Amino acid sequence: MRQSHLFTKTRKTAPKDEVAKNAQLLIRGGFIHKEMAGVYSYLPLGLRVLENIKRIVREEMSALGAQEIIMTALQRKELWETTSRWSDEVVDVWFKSQLRAGGEVGFGWSHEEPIADMMRSHVDSFRDLPIFVHQFQTKLRNELRAKSGIMRGREFVMNDMYSFCRGEEEHARFYDQTIEAYMRVFTRVGIGEDTFVTFASGGAFTKFSHEFQTVTETGEDVIYVHREKRLAINEEVLNDETLRELGVTREELQKVNTAEVGNIFNFGTQKSEDLGLVFKDEKGVSTPVWMGSYGIGVTRLMGLLVEKFSDEKGIVWPEEVAPLSVHLVSLAGGSSEVEKEAERVYELLAEHGIEVLFDDRDVRAGEKFADSDLIGIPLRLVVSEKSMAEGGVEMTTRANGASSLVPESNLIERIKKAGVRV
Amino acid sequence: MRQSHLFTKTRKTAPKDEVAKNAQLLIRGGFIHKEMAGVYSYLPLGLRVLENIKRIVREEMSALGAQEIIMTALQRKELWETTSRWSDEVVDVWFKSQLRAGGEVGFGWSHEEPIADMMRSHVDSFRDLPIFVHQFQTKLRNELRAKSGIMRGREFVMNDMYSFCRGEEEHARFYDQTIEAYMRVFTRVGIGEDTFVTFASGGAFTKFSHEFQTVTETGEDVIYVHREKRLAINEEVLNDETLRELGVTREELQKVNTAEVGNIFNFGTQKSEDLGLVFKDEKGVSTPVWMGSYGIGVTRLMGLLVEKFSDEKGIVWPEEVAPLSVHLVSLAGGSSEVEKEAERVYELLAEHGIEVLFDDRDVRAGEKFADSDLIGIPLRLVVSEKSMAEGGVEMTTRANGASSLVPESNLIERIKKAGVRV
Description:
Two copies of one chain form a homodimer.
Chain A: H1 21-28, E1 32-36, E2 39-42, H2 44-63, E3 67-68, E4 74-76, H3 77-82, E5 95-98, E6 104-107, H4 112-119, E7 131-140, E8 155-165, H5 168-188, E9 195-201, E10 208-215, E11 221-226, E12 231-234, H6 240-246, E13 254-268, H7 270-275, E14 278-280, E15 286-288, E16 290-297, H8 298-308, E17 310-311, E18 314-315, E19 326-331, H9 336-351, E20 356-359, H10 365-375, E21 379-384, H11 385-389, E22 393-397, E23 403-406, H12 411-417
Helix pairs in contact in A: 1-8, 2-5, 2-8
């Protein structure tokens, strides 16, 4: 991708009303555009990051056997009344509107009800189960406050997965597999070390539910972490009984600020009973389905990565989610030799399937470097009169600033060694 | 994909309130689920078709130089007031809702205003133009009636592209290129012959706008077609002046029912003037941007394909959009020999990158064939005791029912010859 073709511009400052670091940097880098508080459009570079995160999640959900679908924003009032979740007193984040044809509709802040209802058309016998499905859905939530950039939006993308099982044991097995799959997602995007399966309050069917919490200074949540045992406890269930059960002491726990990046929840048979989602078991007896719900905040994850991986100069994208792998910067300064060499390197990288942002713009070197640091692509290659005189290309790692001159003959090998996604 | 794993079930009948053929067949085949009138979820097979159409559109938009973004559902009242399009009397398809934080928001039925507004942050000088962008957006429209299945929904996916140019000439060039690109899309999905660039009424800046209309019995529109000249005229501009200008006579035209699959519109500088989207020209003079808007109804296109390509048995997907390319049907009937052979063929196809739905279910042959016809995958392969005795696999083309026995050694070659997407 040629930077001269990319329509977005970097900015030296973020909008004054934007207080969250993630949104400030993403707006300045041209990744997103603020439509209103908590509502952001995704521009070409931002959409690439988003799609990379979705790709990782999709791969892990697919490995679990989950089938992808896409449900709707518009929601039927009658359906949500069945589970007593239509009322604004019960759910305070509904957007609702009048239908011109008469009646009211809601906008999907969650999809548990419609998916359980939909499954009634596809589940009949025990042979049809288990079923695992997931979707990447744009959720709409009428949040009172929206000051955390893309980490808590009024409109955001979520991966929500649902499981439909024949009983508690089958459910528990999938639930545990999902915990592992979710941790693989967090590891792949670069936050595995700092993300903890956190015990939180359960529901009617389980003592605990589980959250995935990632340590970050600006996090809205507080949890208590046991780093060695890789577990954590939410404030609401931090009591002697929980400590005893998990085999840890209060003194071993460290209090940290975190952001919730995922959660998983066991409905047992409650939702199915409410909505009439049943199957005939092996004896022909009509039995309610065990249901679980599993969420990963996709856009939130993107915001969190910016919060955690950035410095005073800009963003430092982890390799697997970076919008592109290499930022090729041409410092031609009028030299057609340098221009030609940069074009050659660009073609070489393309031939090897390496995703490159090619800064072929006619602007000052200082501006190019500042933009490159702000945009945060993992590896930077500079072609200049100096690098050519020294017989190669200057390669710099965004994360640590380490720089070296690489002869063109070694370039592809060195790029691949640097762990670039190909 | 194993059919035993696919959670969706086919149905013998469609919901009674569903009158549109496209939705009837898509629901029966397990492609979509009806949430309410004009609102449908996309299940695994349906999502695959949708993604195939998007892939084709994306390739053609990218070839035009358009950059992909994704805007938001939530819309700012103040922005739309600027162009006098907030009022329900002007735009009668708004969904609107109260913000808990105070004030009103709308839900995106169009994105012309927000994209022009967003471009103000990225356009400064003539050097920044032209810019072409597109998105696949879920549009929300408060339609009074919604009886055409996925062809006119309250919630639907659209590809909307926008052009921002320095003047009329640059705009006209891109506008013409887009007409060609859109026709390539329609040709690739199989409706090129029946789709006509149709003259419709223009706006302040042009005499005509252009619609892409596809001949179909159940179409809501009526146009007048000149098949040889590959042009058509919308009823509203069918007059002597238009006929003279296009060099055709009324007698040469054929009146047909059509569905609109795309439209393109020239705003001139009107929208930019309203919203303050200007650039400094080569003399440093502040000049409004020329803007164009270009839409393809993605879900509508999917519905139209079903309307046009189906028979009494079910859907007949065109190759490029089919959910999978081959339907492999195992008629084992308890024979482990046949089962093994079918598994072997399944692996063979996978090795060659062919997308297969493998009917490995333990159900009657009649049910398998009925489902296969309903789902409408272009090529069917049957492995049975009979086919094995005859030394091969039975291959049937869904479109014409032509059937032949293919030795396994020739299978891949024959499949590729049949024009399968690999």
